[in-house]
Amino acid sequence: MNKKSSKATILRILKDTKPIAGWLAVSALISLISVALALATPEILKSLSDRLYAYWDTARTGAKAVFDNAAFRKESVWLAAAYAGSSLASVFEMLIMNNVVSKHFTCAIRIRMSDKVRRLPVRYIDHTPNGEIISHMTDDVSMLGTTVHNFIDTMISGFIKLLGIIVLIFLLNPILAAAVVVFVPLSLFLSAKIAGKSEKYYVEVRKRNGQLYALTEETFTGLDTVKAYNLESRQCERQAELCGQMRDAARKGNFLAAIVQPIVALSNNIAYIAICILGGLFVANNLFGVSVGTIVAFILYARMFAGPLESIAQGFSMLQHTIASAERVYRMLDEEEMTEATEESAPKGEGNVDFENVDFSYDPKQPLIEGLNVHVRAGEKVAIVGPTGGGKTTIVNLLMRFYDVDGGHIYVDGKDVYRMPRAALRSVFSMVLQDTWLFSGTIYDNIAYGRPDATEEEVIEAAKRAHVDRFIRSLPDGYQTVINEETTNISGGQKQLLTIARAYLANRPILILDEATSNVDTRTEILIQRTMDDLMKGRTSFVIAHRLSTIVDADTILVVNHGHIVEQGTHKELLEQNGFYAEIYRSQYELLN
Question: Greatest CA span in the chain, whole angstroms?
């Protein structure tokens, strides 16, 4: 990461704080009040110390000493008020920043990222581990929030307090002041350089953290498979490897960052020594008008001096964490979004589908679909068969615009799908996929997901048509049974039946069934197949099938291989051709026997 990139990232963070700029200004003002009161306390203590020393010195010489109790009490009250006011202002500043940053800054960025995910192409989601996206939205955004939260203390309080202390001590005594600040430029320079060296290690930490999230999510999602293959140790080894890499990077970065504070402490300790030696000499020899109170004030200012120096030094270190996190957040926010057209309205809902000279590839170097031409009339049942990787699911992905074609056109009811909003296009499709998806919630809500305005009677009817109503009613809570987060409290076949019921309820003109009956038993499969035949009457249906016995009654069977339709026709016609389809069919028949 170069300096130009880091500067641009910092400016972008500042730009994102504009919505809370007013609150930051209020917090800065309160911080200034706190700093002003804190800077006033050594001056008051100086006066109190000089008053006490003068009384003691006069009494020591034998002269009659008169102590001004009223003035002493008044200054003591001012001192207590200054300390209390400074502490109270700091508390108010902290409360404001906690509330504003959490509610309005980090929350706003997470909302933007969540909205961004909705507008990202499926290609990005397919190629980015879920755990990594979660890491961006949690840890990385939290780091940004922490930096903004500490901005006032580091940049406002720190620098202004530092400047105020320097001005005040020079007004008190330039010679002693020079002893205090002579090491400051060197201290700040070394702090900044060392913190800059740690940046690359913190970038590595954030990268490994994202990979660790992804691995953890992957392990727990597929825990049954991991256990079934006795791969727990391998997953643990991979996790240990990532943790080790993250630990090494963090150790190096933290080591460099940790050097900063000792440098500041050394500078401050040297200043203490200089004040004590020079101050003692000046007071003992009555030089430069230095009094005991002046020495007390200098020691207090020197002690205060360490605070903003360390704050600024830590700010340099934290800045490297922040830049690494911000780069990841903004890289995601800057990802190219799906193009959205508005020229065409939604299809009429008739169900005509046409592919004309469609070309597509996931990798430009490896073409998958070339010159695909398919014409499907409304109400037809179209089966898509072929070997794994031949392009069956890809055809559906293009039809639903999960991916965009590289060339050619796709039309639904005569309208180009690339000239209409995706939501309008997808409003005419229902899908049942081989990989079922249910969310943590009631069975009723999961069925009604595709059509939230459905009545209870319609939901129950959809469940009956999917042959899952009886199973649901056998559960203790019936339709209000809650499916847990991992969906482990129902079987795979039952999950598939629920997704089929969801598609029934949606009742849209075009159906896409991707091996929808693969997770049910033979008897249930026959029942579902009959119900699907009824449901598909008058509707266009695309059925991706591996078991050819389920699509023998299709109006058209498309045999796909290497992205090309190598054969097309009815089951009987394709068998008579004795080609690729017949070969696949016979191989399955032989396996069954």
Answer: 131
Q: How many residues does the chain have?
A: 593
Q: Is the pLDDT of residue 52 over 60?
A: yes
Query: How far, in Å, CA of 126 to CA of 212, rounded?
Result: 18
Q: Which amino acid is at 29?
A: L
Question: For the chain, which domains are there?
Answer: 3-333 (1.20.1560.10), 438-507 (3.40.50.300)
CA dihedral for 184, 186, 189, 190, sign (positive or negative): negative
pTM of the model: 0.65
For residue 569, is it left (φ>0), alpha (ψ between -120 and 50) or beta? left
**Would strands 510-514 and 429-432 be described as parallel, antiparallel, or unpaired?**
parallel
Residue-wise pLDDT for 518-575, tens only, equals: 656 666 667 667 767 766 777 888 888 777 777 888 888 888 887 677 888 888 889 8
In 3D space, the residue among 482, 523, 479 whose CA is nearest the CA of residue 501 turns out to be: 479
> What is the distance between the alpha carbons of residues 561 and 108, in angstroms, rounded to a whole number?
47
Q: Which position has the higher pLDDT, 54 or 454? A: 454
* Residue position matching structure tokens 């299809």: 347
How far is Cα 582 from Cα 429, in angstroms, rounded to an integer? 31
Query: Backbone dihedral region of 538: left (phi > 0), alpha (psi from -120 to 50 degrees) or beta?
Result: left
Distance CA 546, CA 544 (A): 7
DSSP string, 129-195: -HHHHHHIIIIIHHHHHHHHHHHIIIIIIIHHHHHHHHHHHHHH-HHHHHHHHTTHHHHHHHHHHHH
384, 515 Cβ separation under 8 angstroms: no
Decide if pLDDT at 224 tops 70.
no
pLDDT value at position 593?
A: 47
Rounded Cα gap, residues 158 and 504, in angstroms: 64
Q: What is the mean pLDDT of the chain?
A: 79
Q: Give me the long-range contacts of 182-191 (CB less than 8 A, separation at least 24).
A: 183/267, 183/270, 183/271, 184/267, 184/309, 186/267, 187/263, 187/264, 187/267, 187/309, 187/313, 188/309, 188/312, 188/313, 190/260, 190/263, 191/260, 191/263, 191/264, 191/312, 191/313, 191/316
**pLDDT at res. 491:** 75
Kindly state the percentage of the chain with pLDDT values over 90. 2
At residue 509, the 3 state secondary structure works out as coil
140-196 tens-digit pLDDT: 888 888 777 777 666 667 778 878 888 887 887 787 777 777 766 666 676 667 766
Contact 368, 392 (CB under 8 A): no
Report the C-alpha gap between 328 and 466 in whole angstroms: 45
Q: Are 541 and 513 in contact (CB under 8 A)?
A: yes
Higher pLDDT, 485 or 570: 570
- In the prediction, which pLDDT does 300 show? 78
C-alpha distances out from residue 411 to 354, 355, 368, Å: 5, 7, 20
**Residues whose CB falls within 8 Å of the CB of residue 275, separated by 6 or more in sequence, listed in order:** 176, 179, 180, 295, 298, 299, 302
pLDDT-derived band at 410 (thresholds 50, 70, 90) equals very high
Residues in CB range of 426: below 8 A, 6 or more apart: 400, 401
What one-letter code names the amino acid at 306? A
